[in-house]
Amino acid sequence: MDFMVFQYPMITVQACLDGILLGVLFALIAYGMALQWGVMNIINIAQGDLVILGGYIAYFMYLYGIHPAWGVIVSPFIMYFVGVGIYKLVINKVVDRDLFISILATFGISILFMQLMNFAFGADVVLANSGYGTTFLFDSNVVLPNSKIFSAVVSIAFAICLVIYMKKSKLGRAIRATAQNARAAKILGVDTEKVYAATFGINAALCGVAGALISITFTIHPYMGLPYTIRSFMIVIVAGLGNLPGVAMSGMGLGVFEEFADYILGTEFRIGSVFLLLVLILVYRRFKLSRKREYLK
Amino acid sequence: MKINRIILSFISAIAILFSTSVVSFAKVVGDKIVLGAAISLTGKYSSNGVHTQNGYNLAVERINSMGGVKVGGKTYKFDIIYYDDESNPKRAAQLAERLISQDGVEFMLGPYSSGLTKAIAPVTEKYGVPMVEANGASRSLFTKGYKYLFAVLAPANLYLDVAIDLAVEKNNGKPVRIAQAFEQDAFSQDVRLGILDAAKRTGSEIIIDDKLPKELNDMAATLVKVKQMKPDVLVVSGHTKGALTAIRQIAEMKVDVPMLAMTHCDAAKLSKQHGKNSQYALCASQWHKSLTYKDKFFGTGMKYAADFEKKFKYDPPYQSAESSAALLVFKDAFERANSFDKKKVRDALAATNMQTFYGNIKFAEGGQNVDKPMVLFQVMCDDSGKCENKVVAPTKWASAKLIHPIPSWSNR
Questions:
Q1: Above 90 in pLDDT, residue A143?
Q2: pTM given for the model
Q3: Domain A4-296 CATH assignment equals 3.40.50
Q4: Residue A234: which residues within 8 A CB-CB, separation 6 or more?
Q5: Contacts of residue B274 in chain A, CB cutoff 8 Å?
């Protein structure tokens, strides 16, 4: 235990800002998961692997001399089609089966993606340098890499665009209708098959954006997907489905929580503390739900 | 009908007999000495696994083309059976078992990484099969009393203690304040033990002692502490991801520290991935091509590097060099033992005292190589942004002078 983070106010500020910037990025991935979970009732274990694949797209652009920030545009475009492809090959066969089958299927996809990425790109840890420099705050006591700020801004921009798209566009309305009641939507002429494919594609595209941002701010590696899946899962169960402000808030909350856990417990417990929090929240939710159930009796 | 069945069972009995007897012959076939190796060709160690395999292959080719191995007046050639261990310790142990009991291999080469070597060593030990390994540096490999394990590389606890000595020397012999961050794995924790010893020896103080997770990609918290407490040396070891993450975030957060010492810089292709930001980092290395060791197969390190580059189209990392050295050690031991008896070869290995292009090799009781010090190189870049690794310590091999302290970010 180390409480240095509270002894120096500047470190507290630093931890909060780092956490918020990180959390916004997590929230973007989680939003994709919530969307696809809400519409198709599928928990996508391969979410993190889609993120990493998106990161590799940005990395390869960087290798060929294109600035990795363009990955934010290119990666979702490619990932959309990857997502639709996965849907057509696997997900459409499990979409109306029970949750267990779909978890198994996406778990399989996750393993397949890890191995394929390892095969295609090698096991090396890679990153793309943006060369964005650094912002100093409070008499240079707080340091924020511009790449982190960039990633937060881009995440927010994409989230806003998506919300508007879901509200205004025809497809967005169809997606929302399907989420509410797939059968009714079908009766009223919505091609749910198409909606499902598009939803999975949009989710993959969001993962692509996040992956490109991660390759700019952190590092990517074929086996690094799982922590992102866990984080987004956790954010979604805290926030609930179809609740974007909730997802954003719980994403930032998780980011800040992680940063503080890092300072107080040590970096080695960073991911561990996320798992612990997940367990606590699940237990708490069960407790709350069981009370509600009693009330209903 | 009954006769048919009897004939059938007779045939199948013979078939079973054949299938078992075919595989169990001793593995010196004709003029070939067959060595076995489980290597990580897929999975998370696959890039270093390939470096290891390339090192082995280059040495086999070279030794075979230069006359092979002479035992009992006859010339033999090396041959290696490889299996892919998928970077998985359990699989590696199974494969070692399979190599020895099914394929009849009597001499083994090591896998990549300390963890996998640890998994295989009990198996080779059980069968009394000598194993020369080149990529398992964890100290715990050499304290178990293994009799058939020989490592051509220096143990992990010696990786970075030179850096602490260097820092103390630059501080006019006065103790220094050390910040350290190590991954939670056998290798990095051994590096950490080495630093603790060095700190004790020099009276230095460890002011930050962080542990890094396996999924490391953010060490901002450690670096914020470093900024606040201003240590004299920052030591980081977390394989390639540790090296890459540290350099990225030190540059982004403009962390000024007089000395930065790391492991796995060349495996991480640090200067290629980070360019000038990696400048001044001190890196522990088992080998560097500019060292002046020599042997008759590869000549000097420079020549080895050139030959390797010609064949595999990249500059050899030390993982390849040490793997090549393992074959040289085997050849030398076979010739001195003048026999293929496992016990005799083992004793010959234990008595090894030779120089290779990679360094001097002489095994201690535990099997580690005690005759080859680690080297430290520093990443140095010219104005055009081209970076090179130059050996700065020990002074005997230094090809450049250590730049100390590292200039602050505001002056770069």
A1: no
A2: 0.80
A3: no
A4: A254, A274, A277, A278, A281
A5: 129
